[in-house]
Each structure stands twice: as structure tokens, then as C-alpha cells.
Specification:
Radius of gyration: 15 Å
Number of domains: 1
Largest sheet: 7 strands, mixed
CATH architecture: 3-Layer(aba) Sandwich
Number of strands: 7
Strand content: 25-35%
CATH class: Alpha Beta
Length: 158
């Protein structure tokens, strides 16, 4: 891994974050046709609103001085945190960037007792990534359409 830096995002980053999110999720939207729920179909306003939430932290993922993705952390009650979403531009996927980003971000929230996230069950690479990082399926899953099921994960730290 070359140089990877996680930088706290600001409201001024909304348009840039949104453009990376759309590019990162567009292949999954094409594959699963989840037009109502895909982050590739979200508006810039939704990104702006999330950046302004007091319980949300966004970080830019900078790889070799190029911003290649972002991750949003939602602070929930009882020292629970949720990753929703993390995304990397397609041309930078498969390089270990998401793994390093997840471990780095988890280390920033030292009070966390549980981390949560969800992903597409049919995307075995994504499921494998999170399982390798210590996340376990909760048993909850939501069928979005005939092509795609969202599966929920947790990682307990205590």
C-alpha cells in the first residue's frame, strides 16, 4: 500500500463527495437496478444534508494524493457506530484501500463497542471484505428486488 490518508470532510466537499459516490455506485446500480435505493441515484442535497448532521462524520479517502473515495460514520446511541456508506472509485477498487480505511476509521472512535454496516449479499467480494475485518452477519436481510438483497453486519469490540 502506498500512501493512504483519511481527511475529515467539510460541507464545501459535498459536490465532490457526491460525484465520487455516483461514480462508485453506478456499476452496482446498472447490475442490480435498485433505482429507489442506490447511492448512485441520490441527490446532491442528500449528501449536503448528511454532511450537516451532527451525528455524522464524513472522511475523504486520499490515496497517493488523489481523493479516491469517502466514508460516512454515523454516531448512534450506546457507543454504536455505523458505516453508511463507504465508496471507492471503480478504478481504485481491489487495492486494499477499503480495508485500510475501515481499520483507520475504526481506530478513531475509541469508545465504540459495536460497528454496524450493510452491503449487497450478492457481492461476495464486499461480504468477504467485511468478514475479513471481523464483521459478522446479524441474520437480518432485506430483499430489495429479485436481483439484490441487503445483508446487515455487526462487529462487536467488547
Amino acid at each position: 500500500m502506498e500512501q493512504l490518508v483519511i481527511q475529515k470532510a467539510a460541507i464545501e466537499d459535498a459536490t465532490f463527495i457526491h460525484s465520487i459516490q455516483v461514480a462508485a455506485f453506478k456499476p452496482l446500480l446498472a447490475k442490480y437496478q435498485d433505482f429507489d435505493t442506490s447511492p448512485a441515484n441520490e441527490t446532491i442535497q442528500r449528501t449536503t444534508d448528511r454532511l450537516q448532521q451532527k451525528q455524522t462524520d464524513y472522511y475523504l479517502i486520499v490515496y497517493n494524493m488523489i481523493t479516491v473515495g469517502a466514508i460516512r460514520i454515523v454516531k448512534k446511541a450506546n457507543r454504536r457506530y455505523r458505516v453508511s456508506p463507504i465508496f471507492i472509485l471503480p478504478e481504485y477498487q481491489g487495492r486494499g484501500i477499503a480495508s485500510v480505511t475501515m481499520r483507520t476509521v475504526e481506530s478513531l472512535y475509541k469508545d465504540a463497542v459495536v460497528w454496524e454496516l450493510d452491503t449487497i449479499l450478492e457481492e461476495q467480494k464486499l461480504c468477504g471484505l467485511y468478514e475479513k475485518l471481523g464483521y459478522r452477519k446479524t441474520g437480518k436481510a432485506t430483499k430489495m428486488n429479485e436481483r439484490m438483497t441487503i445483508v446487515f453486519y455487526e462487529k462487536e469490540l467488547v
